[in-house]
Amino acid sequence: MANQEMYKHDAMLHIVWVMAVEDRKEGAEKWATPAEDSYLDTIRKAENINILWADFNAKREELGSGEKIIDEACKALRGCGKDWKIKTMGYMQRMGWVSQEDDLENNMSDKEWSLVIRAQKALELTDEERKNSYQNLPRK
After folding, report:
1. What H or E segment, with its residue span, contains residue 98?
2. How far is CA 77 from the centre of its chain?
3. What φ, ψ does residue 94 adopt, rounded to 5°?
4. Burial tier of 104 (Cβ tally within 10 Å: 0-12, 13-18, 19+)
């Protein structure tokens, strides 16, 4: 059971991390901004996730592209309960709003929005579930 719990936690953090780095600036020294790194750690604390970031980074490097990470994370999340899927969707959206990229109105870029919609479909969530998913989650 502990492995399953870590797997769903790992999947949540990985899919949210891909959201953070989707609009990474070409040639940037770091993958994520300090605000995005901080929000990922906020999620870890809020969900009481015990993870070694070295292991997280090794898994990310093993999987390679963001596409592969999204596929693997969604595959793991499909076996989770609806509440966990909705919460993951909410954290993805909150991460998209952490740093302003190209949309002055909602802080989420078109690339990030595409990831949200892709994950929504893969996790078989309704539009209403997506729209309400970020309620009551930490903002920063």
Report:
1. helix 82-98
2. 12
3. -60, -40
4. exposed
